[in-house]
Amino acid sequence: MFTGLIEEVGTVHNLQKGKNSMILTITCSSILNDAKIGDSIAINGVCLTVTSLSDHQFSVDVMPETMKSTTLHELKKGSKVNLERAMAAGGRFGGHFVSGHVDGTGVIQSMKKEENAIYIYIQVPDELIKYFMMKGSVAVDGTSLTVFDVKKNSFMISLIPQTADDTIIASKSPGSKVNIECDMIAKYVQNLMHPQTNGIDESYLKENGFM
Length: 211
What we know:
This protein has 211 residues and is mainly β. It is 13% helix and 39% strand. The strands form two sheets. A six-stranded antiparallel β-barrel has the order 1-2-5-4-3-6. Strands 7-8-11-10-9-12 form a six-stranded antiparallel barrel. The protein is globular. InterPro entries: ATP_synth_asu-like_sf, Lumazine-bd, Lumazine-bd_dom, Riboflavin_synthase-like_b-brl. Catalyzes the dismutation of two molecules of 6,7-dimethyl-8-ribityllumazine, resulting in the formation of riboflavin and 5-amino-6-(D-ribitylamino)uracil.
């Protein structure tokens, strides 16, 4: 479990690519202070498991499904990435509930600076837009953000200077792809309202003595 509050921007040190998989090595400066093999670290919002580490580097395995459904396959040596360790049980909880399980990728449509804010519209697949609402939450490349507008197949976020400085989002441009994780609570509510139960509903449970 993550919060969407990015702790550090790291740099891709090396990529060992297979046909549909990858070993990714990241250089960073601070988040490995208490890390160990087996820990979870989110890279651009994707929860991955540390397989090896040193004082300033760690490696993760990226499996075919993750390569296919996220933007990690677009990374190159030298790419900057958002990093967040899994939330500590005794830590202060900011941001929102982020699982690190990306729902899909979006494409930045436009970026506009207005006073101290950067307004960004992001197009998402049609099947994801139902999870967005005004003042709801979304994780973009792992960064917890508030939704300020929703259109037919896109939504808008606004970056404050702190977020622009501490994450990679402001360095992107229209046409760039980003990882999208929709609000976990919205997904649960949507599933409860429209369950994929293969005919198992409240009437079925009552008729068969489960309620």
